[in-house]
Design goal:
264 residues, alpha/beta, Rossmann fold, ProC C-terminal domain-like fold, elongated, binds NADP nicotinamide-adenine-dinucleotide phosphate
């Protein structure tokens, strides 16, 4: 067994989906635990991986263990498995606010600790994951970790102090973008377009714009300027957004999200 997941809901399945698709590990090399038999059946049917209801079995069988339960269950789960953890284990936390020091302390044994901060676009293979780790993790292991997180999107290694920023700019921001697409679609509907087409236009505009930022390497302001012809329609929209405090609203939303992340 190469990798184990304690908890395999939305995020666990998204990560395993990417790992299988990119053939980082085979189904037979992955073990997951769930709380319920129903959860286990879902993981077997959807992913074809080995399942158990015993979290300790995951830790006994896999040296790389990802904690993919909700944050409020982290402590309970670590208390349950800590007797099985050894210094050969690498434990990966994916919950906001659960620091490397917290993980190390709750594991009760000096081991390799890693944090992933993935986001929901991982569900469609376009996730963005911030990763940090403690000093026990080797360069070779970092390469392996990157392979895993790259399998469901992109990866950036960051110092732990930036994990709240990562949570805000990539963990939470999909919600803000969904609000943006919804609002754009509402306007298109008001202008007579069908809902279905409105979501298609709005979402594809976001996808294409994001690709332009990532693939051209140009400054977002420069890309904006390329769309805004003199005395044209777009600059009128830009003026309206500035008047409504669009940039400031986004700025404050991310700072508020990061602030909340620090308190979790
Ligand atoms: N969703 C996101 O956008 C996102 C982004 C970044 C990080 N995260 C983090 O990802 C983690 C998982 O979130 P999620 O959205 O994937 O949650 P989820 O869909 O609710 O899945 C939770 C999983 O944990 C299992 N579980 C619950 N208690 C357990 C226990 N005591 N032992 C073993 N398994 C147990 C559940 O099993 P059953 O199915 O049997 O109940 C289920 O498979 C959270 O820590 C969250 O903060 C999520």
């Amino acid at each position: 067994m190469k990798i184990g997941f304690i908890g395999c809901g939305n995020m666990g399945s998204a990560m395993i989906g990417g790992i299988l698709k990119k053939r980082i590990f085979q189904k037979e090399e992955i073990i997951v635990s769930n709380l319920t038999e129903e959860g286990s059946r879902r993981s077997r049917e959807k992913l074809g991986v080995m399942t158990t209801l015993d979290n300790c079995e995951v830790v006994r069988r896999a040296k790389l263990v990802i904690l993919a339960v909700k944050p409020q269950y982290y402590e309970e789960v670590l208390n349950e498995v800590k007797g099985e953890l050894t210094e050969k284990h690498m434990i990966v936390g994916i919950a906001p606010g659960k620091t490397l020091a917290w993980l190390e302390e709750k594991c009760g044994t000096p081991l390799k600790a890693v944090r992933f901060m993935p986001n929901t676009p991982a569900l469609v293979g376009e996730g963005m994951t911030g990763v940090c780790f403690n000093e026990r993790v080797t360069d070779e292991e970092i390469t392996q970790i990157r392979e895993i997180t790259d399998s469901f999107g992109r990866t950036e290694i960051v110092p732990e102090r930036l994990m709240d920023a990562v949570g805000a700019v990539s963990g939470c921001s999909p919600a803000f973008v969904f609000m943006l697409v919804e609002a754009m679609a509402d306007a298109a509907v008001a202008l007579g377009m069908s809902r279905k087409q409105a979501y298609s236009f709005g979402a594809q505009a976001v996808l294409g714009s994001a690709k332009m930022v990532l693939e051209t390497g140009l400054h977002p302001g420069e890309l904006k300027d390329m769309v805004t012809s003199p005395a044209g329609t777009t600059i009128e929209g830009v003026r309206t957004l500035e008047k409504a405090g669009f940039r400031s609203a986004m700025f404050e939303a991310l700072l508020a999200a990061a602030e909340k992340g620090k308190k979790l």
